[in-house]
Amino acid sequence: MTQNMKLPSLSFLAQAFISVCRRFPATMLCAVAGVITLMVINESRHVSGGENWIKFWMMAQIGLALSTGLVAFAESREWPSVRNLALQAGGLVLLGGYYALLDMDAKALDQIHLPRYIGFLALAHLFGAAAPFLNRRPVADFWEYNKQLFANFVVGAVYTMILYSGLSLAVLAVNELFNLEINYKIYAHLFVLLAGVFNTAFFLAHFPPEFQFADRDQSYNVVFKNLCQYILIPITGLYFLILYAYSVKILVTWNLPHGWVSSLVLGFSVAGIFTYLINYLLPAHTDSKIVHAYRRWFWWVLLPMVGLLFVAIGRRIADYGVTEERYFVAHAGLWLLALCGYFLWSKTDNIKFIPISLGLFILVAILGPLSAFQVAQRSQTGVLRELLEKNGRFDGDRLKAGGAAVPAEDAQRIYSGLEYLDKQDALDRIAPWFPVPLSTIATDTSRYAYAQRAAAIAAWLNAAPEGTVAANQREISVYPLHSQALNGNIAGFRTFYRLELYGDTDRKDRRVTFSTGLNALLLLDAAGKVTTDSIDLTPAMRGWLTAAGEEGYYTMPTGAEMVELRGKKSAARLYVQEARFDALKMEMRSLTGVLFVK
């Protein structure tokens, strides 16, 4: 007779949570810190010191995986509690050092610092997957360990979404039935709390207590078996057919492959390797021919696709040089080639090689002289020098101003190279080529003026593409520090208009629109056809530009969102909710708010 299932008591849940905190103190600390940080950011979109809060959250995400891996590493070696805690503390110290070094205001934030952060985040997760098995423990134990981690993550995510859906509906019902006017931000807070604390605690509560599974039943779960046999292997086979059909087309037409085929090969590889890992022990539990064939032939099938990837990315690099994106694709190709070589010719098909080798390749890609950033900068500098030498811009070892006209294609590539180096904060690589300091040629030193600096340098070389300077922008964003209601005396204003204007949108149904030059507001008659007045926006833009300084944004303090303006016939008062404008042309791109006119 079966026993009735009982829901766990609150005391049991509390005890489980305390046990998790005792075993993984640093991980839970990072989880709580990340939750609090996201709640603070969500509470106010323009919170003071917002970039530091974002940095803090970024460190917490690395800390979750890193601290968990450190615990698994220490426990697998049966270290005493004091040594285990010291190791976790050391991990937090490393995160603190990275927090201090990461510059969110750096010019090359998007191009270098964020990709490097993603690399560190991936390394932390790979470490967690392999930490207890950086030794001679059996591969079957390594597979079982990661199978349990994957299953716990999926189950925890499902429980989290079910809880969130149920609690969100409960909050909505209470709010609607009792007219409580609950702030909508509570839903985001609830999701962050469940995903950050509940999901993390659930995952850690089911974290393997030991790392030897030889005496346990390692039979395949039916879900994993069906997932692999009836979903993943057929999908991977579909990728295989598409790519091989495309390879046949290349041989028939004798045309080199397009660059995007690299993405398809990488997609096939990721899906295939994931399937191979799940399928690794399945042949011992099934007579399916497709399962056995996949285990035996996958790496042979993948090898020609790696060659196709090198041909595709090699064509792009030969034409335009190395960039970070092309480097990452080629670097991934080298990793795939190493995997194929290992599993085809090694006598020990040890799947530990996959995460460990990937971690090493990521380290090379994000740090040191062979990193994507250093290699790409050297390549683009070389391409730029070749173009300038080809067009006679060098006088000895120094560049000279002016010169004969440059062909349009070369001019565009020169401009693109200058803009690329500036985005990478790497103009110092070409500074010795110039007879004068670059600061005397490109005077704007603000973070977002890389297009303007590239245009200025190209113009000095008489190599600017046609229309480059005219198309150049320095966009400034304006918004209040805190969302707030309209305040102030509006006595004497005869009417008001709600503004939702965008420079590239012609809304004929509105009573207010931008002028042709986008530097004034035109008030229209009731039919929306005849202009009754023009309100000049230039004084407001000049004030915002001064307040923004070298930044690309201006957060208005309380009271500054109200701007007094003058028209040809009227006085106006503008309450700004958000604005964007081109500071070089003094042209408004978008404006939302309320305009009062008298």
The shape is: globular
Strand content: 5-15%
> Nearest-angstrom radius of gyration?
30 Å
- Termini separation (Å)? 85 Å
Fraction of residues in helix: 55-70%
Q: Could you give the order of the helices and strands?
A: HHHHHHHHHHHHHEEHHHEEEEEHEEEE
In short:
With 598 residues, this protein is an alpha+beta fold. It is 57% helix and 11% strand.
Write a structural description.
The protein is an alpha+beta fold. Helix content is 57%, strand content 11%. The chain has helices spanning 10-23, 25-43, 50-76, 81-101, 109-130, 139-178, 185-205, 222-253, 261-278, 289-320, 324-345, 353-366, 372-390, 408-423, 450-460, 468-471, 538-548; strands spanning 394-395, 398-399, 475-480, 495-502, 512-514, 520-524, 531-536, 553-556, 562-566, 571-582, 587-597. The strands form 3 sheets. Strands 3, 4, 8, 9, 10 and 11 form a 6-stranded mixed beta sheet that branches. Strand 9 and strand 10 (571-582) form a beta hairpin. Helix 6 packs antiparallel against helix 7. The longest helix is centred in the first third of the chain and has 40 residues, at 139-178. The N and C termini lie far apart (85 Å).
